[in-house]
């Protein structure tokens, strides 16, 4: 069941799924990527079911501008620090002092900002679809925002633009909100800030992913970082991969 709460005046939609079994289960917070939603990123690829079956309490939100959450059209509403605060506010709303956190692509960036600014709230991090570009890139190219603002997808010739515009329209997204999100969420963390994230971190990237950057290069910057190559998967197909799921479950169990 989808629930809502207000985070700094923006309504944030989320789910809170109890684990299978009698124990309450340790909480894991899932943060999805750009132009996606909790359902597309986590429910449909069976992440929620997999984690609940493993005894986890699974919380997943729709980032502002996405899914069933509020959709400001001001780029200033989408700083990564602001979206990380939405995640922290959700933990507060649910009275969860600390959780494991998993993010994919933009959601992985948000997760890193959450861990950097709230080190006591994040027990461990799983970063999917994001490698060294966390450090040397501000995210997806700005032409993705331009694709959302184009009057028609027929005017787009760039394959990446057509891909994201088609994905957004397929999901009936608010295109103006997505353009604002892309323009507003272009902050980066320094090497020193990344090095201060002391919790265990798993960095998982598909071997065919041309968007994320090298997972090993990023994992080496964390005091307790480790990398996972997801074989034969690109940026879109890696998210639901069985190798990724197995490694994430094993990582969480080791952390516990």
- Estimated share of beta-strand residues: 15-25%
Count of beta strands: 8
Mean pLDDT across the residues is 96
| Quaternary form | single chain
Which CATH architecture? Answer: 3-Layer(aba) Sandwich
> Quick one: CATH class?
Alpha Beta
- For this structure, the CATH topology is Rossmann fold
The shape, in one word, is globular
Radius of gyration: 17 Å
Portion of residues within helices: 25-40%
Largest sheet: 8 strands, mixed
Annotated CATH homologous superfamily: Alpha/Beta hydrolase fold, catalytic domain
Listing every helix as H and every strand as E from the N terminus to the C terminus, the arrangement reads EEEHHEHEHEHHHHHEHEH
Number of domains: 1
How far apart are the first and last residues' alpha carbons, in Å? 28 Å
Can you give me a brief rundown of this structure?
This protein is α/β, with parallel strands linked by helices. The chain has helices at 38-43, 47-53, 80-93, 106-117, 133-136, 143-149, 159-170, 175-184, 191-195, 215-219, 242-255, and strands at residues 3-7, 10-17, 27-31, 57-61, 99-104, 122-128, 201-206, 225-230. It contains 11 helices and 8 strands.
